[in-house]
Amino acid sequence: MDRFSDWAKTASYFGQYPSTLYAQARTESGERVQQQKGTSLITAAVREGILIAADDLVFGESEGRIISVRTGVQKVVIAYKNLLIGSAGLLEGRKIKYKFENWIADFIEEHSGDPQKRPLDLANAIQREVRATFETGECSVEKGYWRNHGPNDWIVHYVVAGYTEQFKQHYIYEVGAKLDAKGNGLTYPSLSHHRREFPDMFLVGEDEFVLRAYKGVEPQFSLYQELARVAFRDIGMLVPNIPQSLQEVAAEVVALVKVEAKFNAQKVGTTVHIVLIDRGARKTYTAIL
């Protein structure tokens, strides 16, 4: 697990979502909120493969309080044999026809017949669909739908990760929608490509305690080490046929998400969903830890 110190030097991005005053206690699950959100999405790549992992919690905000809405939500999916998709930010909205689980399933089915299934093509297609979905008058800034967000805040975040069909090199693209610099409307930034040298890691969402673990700050660092050992054992049982380096990187990512969940429980769930690609075998896998 000594790769962790290398990642601290090469991590390419830490996305931030607007902070909100925490409630003193969780509201009963299922309380109606305007928007349901999810956080803590991590993409990681080594020479032998690539993965995306995310926690399972969806939360909302009501009158300045954080509300735990539901758990067991999968925010990462296998699109095709060579491509993975993950989402953070808005996962469901009451005034917009958008629920991630349904939206992404329809999107994948719609594009299953595309002749080219390359990361760039998929990222561009997601960006077009996001624009078509979110450009609705009912969700305008003027009507206050995005009042919990500030200028330049991401509304919805997608990460597309994987390979071309030749599996020669990895790609990590970031797409989505955010408020513009003046907070007057939505904007759809140009695609960002985040590929770096191995080991490569890209984070979106809640990261305060991940950063503390990165810096060796206790108790987060010791908890990370303990959780990584347990996750490595469990991943070895769940997906024993993938290369050890891919098992290690998966364990490290699971541990990072669980560290954040331990100290940021109102926004990050304790169960982690992983989708991954074994580059050499050209196979995909899913795991829940």
Characterise this structure.
It is a single chain. This protein has a single domain, classed as Aminohydrolase, N-terminal nucleophile (Ntn) domain (Glutamine Phosphoribosylpyrophosphate, subunit 1, domain 1). Helix content is 28%, strand content 30%. The chain contains six helices and 15 strands. Strands 1, 4, 5, 6, 7, 8, 9, 10, 11 and 12 form a ten-stranded antiparallel β-sheet that branches. It has a five-stranded antiparallel β-sheet with strand order 13-2-3-14-15, with helices on one face. Strand 7 and strand 8 form a beta hairpin. Helix 4 packs across helix 5 and helix 4 crosses helix 6. It starts with a helix and ends with a strand.
Summarize the structure.
With 289 residues, the chain is of the alpha+beta class. The chain is 28% helix and 30% strand. It has a single domain, classed as Aminohydrolase, N-terminal nucleophile (Ntn) domain (Glutamine Phosphoribosylpyrophosphate, subunit 1, domain 1, 4-Layer Sandwich), CATH 3.60.20.
Tell me roughly what share of residues is in helical segments: 25-40%
For the terminal residues, how far apart are their CA atoms? 18 Å
Query: What Rg do the Cα atoms give?
Result: 18 Å
Number of domains: 1
CATH class: Alpha Beta
The CATH architecture would be 4-Layer Sandwich
- Average predicted local confidence, pLDDT: 83
Question: Helical stretch count?
Answer: 6
Give the CATH superfamily: Aminohydrolase, N-terminal nucleophile (Ntn) domain
CATH topology title = Glutamine Phosphoribosylpyrophosphate, subunit 1, domain 1
Number of strands: 15
Please outline the major beta sheet: 10 strands, antiparallel
